[in-house]
Amino acid sequence: MSLLSIQNLKLSIHGTPILKGVSLDVAQGEIVAITGESGSGKSLTAFSVMQLLPRGTGTTGSIQLDGTELLNASDAAMCDLRGNDIGMVFQEPMTALNPLMTIGDQVMETILLHTSATRDEARIKAEETLTRVGLSPEKFKLSRFPHELSGGQRQRVVIAMAIALRPRLLIADEPTTALDVTTQAQILDLLKDLVQDFGMGLLMITHDLAVVSDMADRIVVMRHGDVVETGETSTLFSNMQHDYTRALFAASSHEVDLPDNTRPDDALLVVKDAVRDYPKPRTQLFAPREYTRAVNGISFTLKKGERIGLVGESGCGKSTLTRAILGLEPLQGGSITAFGEEVAPDMPAALRAGLQVVFQDPYGSFNPRHKVARIVTEPFHLLPDPPKGKDRQNRISEALIAVGLRPSDADKYIHAFSGGQRQRIAIARALIIRPELIIFDEAVSALDVSIRAQILDLIAALTQSHDLSYLFISHDLSVVRTITDRVLVMKDGQIVEDGPTEHVFSHPKHPYTASLIAAAPTLPDVKGPINVPT
Hints:
Helices cover 34% and strands 24% of the residues. It is α/β, with parallel strands linked by helices. The protein has a six-stranded mixed sheet with strand order 6-7-8-3-9-10, sandwiched between helices. Strands 16-17-18-13-19-20 form a six-stranded mixed sheet, sandwiched between helices. Strands 2-1-4-5 form a four-stranded antiparallel sheet, covered by helices on one side. Helix 4 (103-114) runs parallel beside helix 6 (151-163), helix 5 packs across helix 6 (151-163) and helix 10 (243-252) crosses helix 16 (449-465). The protein is globular and about 70 Å long.
């Protein structure tokens, strides 16, 4: 008997069909991956198992966990199952964590709710679980709050919460989206170990086919609420039957045709000996204040037309450096200049207009009360004469179409979109005033492979048509390799390697760079051409 059995699951929301007869099984000790584009129904399939569905949802079919029907289970029964028998890792860690609770209390909560453990026993178990996901109490105290951690570190806390009681079934919805390659490798190894050691079933939802190819026993490919292909991993990759599966594989290995940099070498951005410190919490009332150095004497220059990548592990200081470059945080030493003017929190609007950003967490950078039209036009306030009327509507439509959305999406609220679609809206907001320099902070991490390929092609085209330069921050080395012509490798607040992208990837000089490249997942070699439908 399968641990999880989903048979002919149909789901509609307010009468609109979403899932159209999904069937799949997960056995004990088996890893099954669901892959497909944003909006294909992957996450709703997982939420159906957890019975975490929006109002107005109607379901038919069957979902059984070890013979127990879940579709008609009571709320009390599902509360007993969630966390104890079924664990789930959500896609966006900041929305899955309580900002008012420490990370220790949030991991302990699951243990205290479902066991008779005391708080001391729960704390010990929480420390063990957090250590196993790479957050040892010696370095990351249980008293920290989610906002004190980087995106990748928050994702590890969510994983620790899900595996604290070693559930029989673990559902991982894009579990490595926010993680750097080395941490991703550690987390994937951890998940595989849990499956092997405890006979746990793992249902993994991801758009990263490289991760799927190395980890999953079986793959389920979904599109528009349907299962279009399923099979054992090695068999499916060696003999892809459906055009959509072949298109996904081709998009996963997509290489951008990046135009040559032939523009004048005027310096757009100059970072010189930048230092950024953060105060640590006081341990004693009159003790001297201690500081953590997140950025330690970084220097580099980005010239006009240049496309620079910045890579490094989560917590190395990439996002801190980004905020300093944007003038959102002051430096304690050194200087940053953009377009010949000093960057500071009080810099003029004209300088900010030429320097835009796409943040890592799209949901956290949007006002949920505003419609998309207002969100993407936020940068217009930086212009001396912002477009109005029909011209404004045309600019909105052009920006949305450029990132793969429809003009009609301008009248929707942000909660109506998937994680990948939200990231596309963030990119549209940065592009709408056509800046000279954009900072992409994990700009494609939440996108499915086909949309990611389109966005990367769009970025490459903009470098030529809009005279665009950019700093591309990412943990996805395959993306950095194809979209940049120079790469900086950052570790513990310092640049440890700097050079032409292809040379750094082919002949890394620093051991840390070599370890990053070695940890990156790769797609399997497929013999013969991949025929992609037009």
